[in-house]
């Protein structure tokens, strides 16, 4: 075969085949996932809002990220609730949309300096409320979207004949891959939009800049409308499919049952709701009492609850699958639990390297678009390699890709710019590094989601998705804690000015280099050690 023929064959097998496997029934959950990805519309404006209007530390931002990540632990009872109220699950999308809209409305009021808001409580308190409300809405919608992704995979062809298990299994894998695509696609779309919205913002007066920020938050109110549209489309598709099955000779009872999970009827398992209630009670108690180490207490309690519910869950699997699931979950957890550089690194990019809103939006766009491309190109590797192999490759890549950021802090861009006539400057290095790093973050989750779609009991799909997602999302809370600790050890401050222009807090980035190198070392060593230990144990991951 010629080289051109091999390229055409590769393109057909890797890219075109994914499009051929797309079904119209996949579209409604993809719209909900797209809306979740589109929340990135406010990511850049949120960063600059905090920097310009709130006098808070990098450690405070990392701590707030911890609390904002905890609502995802509530996906456990929500997932079980979805399995119990399968035919009425769409109403939860409306609840999630209301919470998301409330978050954006609060930020709109803060950005436009609504006079009545500081009278009720401080600007910082309003900001904290908005940050907490948004993930509450997204976790509700995500639990439903997971269930919709199961329902979207047809079990019958157009003539009403049942599809083979192999065909259904392949379509479940495709559905989960496309779900990641929709998430990143939403992020790509809003990143491109941000480039336009931030055009020329650096020349605006403070009042005009605040108005631009408010316009972006007002535009973000369209995001919950996308997920609601997905639910409405799903309802229309379901009615059409039921009518088609009945027209083909199937009675109405069987036609309706075609959209219900297979297997025995879902029984209420109080452990999921009890665990969720304990989680809420513990979080509110610890938060309101303002106890020392409150985040650590909540994290430990949340982990205990999730592990208890995971024990309930794996009882539905045979021993071999249960052990494989545990090993896989541990590997993915540790990979996602690694600390990040935090807000201090972004402040350095803004203050010292001169990255403005539009350029940061460009970096977000590059990240999103190349993640989509990377997921397509890496799809054969995801299908043929074990999760352990994938995590090893991603960890080594993350270690290498941390070097440009460290180099920028120590001024490598001055040397490269001088050697290349100003071409390879700080922005050039940032773009190239972002382009290479982009596809890596989402890849590790795809094989785990496909594993759940293939192996979890059909009547407990949403519960399995929810509990495993809660466990892996707790890894992000662990990451936030690690980020907070490192930002407390290596203290970095940005410049803060009073309204009259007086500097109240001077910028100090002297310890940022140590922070970047420590994060890079932990990010490489811990996941590799975890993979080695798990693969030497009875929980070895072979899938």
TrEMBL record:
- Principal subcellular localisation of the protein: membrane
Q: Where in the cell is it found?
A: Membrane
Pfam families hit by this protein: BT1
Matching InterPro entries, A to Z?
BT1
Membrane topology type = Multi-pass membrane protein
Presence of the UniProt keyword Transport in the record:
yes
What protein name does the entry list?
Answer: BT1 family protein
What organism is recorded for this protein? Ruegeria alba
């Amino acid at each position: 075969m010629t080289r051109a023929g091999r390229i055409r064959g590769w393109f057909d097998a890797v890219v075109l085949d994914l499009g051929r496997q797309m079904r119209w029934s996949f579209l409604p959950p993809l719209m909900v996932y797209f809306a979740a990805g589109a929340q990135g519309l406010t990511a850049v404006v949120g960063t600059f809002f905090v920097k310009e209007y709130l006098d808070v530390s990098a450690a405070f931002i990392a701590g707030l990220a911890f609390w904002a990540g905890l609502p995802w632990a509530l996906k456990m009872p929500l997932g079980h609730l979805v399995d119990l109220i399968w035919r009425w699950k769409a109403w939860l999308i409306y609840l999630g949309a209301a919470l998301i809209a409330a978050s954006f409305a609060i930020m709109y009021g803060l950005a436009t300096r609504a006079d009545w808001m500081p009278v009720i409580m401080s600007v910082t308190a309003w900001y904290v409320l908005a940050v907490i409300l948004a993930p509450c809405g997204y976790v509700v919608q995500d639990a439903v979207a997971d269930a919709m992704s199961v329902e979207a995979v047809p079990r019958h062809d157009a003539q009403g004949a049942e599809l083979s298990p192999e065909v259904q299994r392949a379509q479940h894998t495709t559905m989960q891959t496309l779900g990641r695509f929709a998430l990143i696609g939403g992020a790509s779309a809003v990143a491109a939009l941000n480039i336009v919205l931030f055009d020329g913002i650096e020349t605006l007066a403070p009042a005009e800049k605040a108005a631009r920020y408010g316009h972006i938050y007002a535009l973000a109110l369209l995001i919950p409308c996308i997920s609601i549209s997905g639910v409405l489309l799903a309802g229309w598709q379901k009615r059409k499919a039921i009518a088609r099955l009945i027209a083909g000779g199937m009675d109405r009872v069987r036609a309706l049952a075609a959209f219900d999970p297979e297997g025995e009827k879902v029984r209420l398992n109080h452990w999921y709701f009890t665990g969720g209630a304990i989680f809420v009670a513990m979080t509110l108690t610890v938060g309101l009492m303002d106890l020392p180490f409150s985040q650590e207490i909540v994290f430990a309690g949340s982990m205990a609850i999730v592990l208890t519910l995971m024990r309930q869950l794996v009882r539905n699997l045979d021993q071999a699958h249960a052990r494989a699931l545990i090993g896989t979950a541990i590997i993915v957890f540790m990979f996602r639990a690694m600390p990040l550089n935090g807000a201090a690194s972004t402040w350095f990019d803004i203050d010292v390297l001169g990255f403005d809103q539009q350029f940061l939006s460009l970096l977000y766009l590059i990240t999103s678009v190349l993640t989509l491309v990377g997921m397509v190109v890496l799809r054969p590797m995801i299908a043929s390699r074990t999760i352990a192999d994938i995590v090893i490759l991603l960890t080594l890549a993350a270690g290498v890709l941390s070097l440009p950021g460290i180099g920028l802090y120590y001024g490598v861009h001055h040397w490269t710019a001088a050697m290349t006539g100003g071409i390879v400057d700080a922005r050039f290095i940032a773009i190239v590094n972002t382009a290479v790093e982009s596809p890596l973050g989402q890849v590790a989750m795809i094989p785990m989601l496909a594993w759940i779609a293939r192996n979890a009991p059909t009547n407990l799909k949403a519960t399995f998705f929810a509990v495993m997602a809660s466990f892996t999302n707790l890894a992000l809370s662990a990451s936030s804690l690690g980020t907070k600790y490192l930002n407390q050890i290596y203290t970095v401050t940005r410049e803060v000015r009073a309204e009259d222009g007086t500097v109240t807090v001077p910028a100090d980035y002297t310890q940022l280099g140590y922070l970047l190198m420590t994060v890079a070392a932990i990010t490489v060593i811990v996941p590799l050690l975890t993979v080695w230990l798990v693969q030497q144990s009875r929980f070895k991951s072979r899938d």
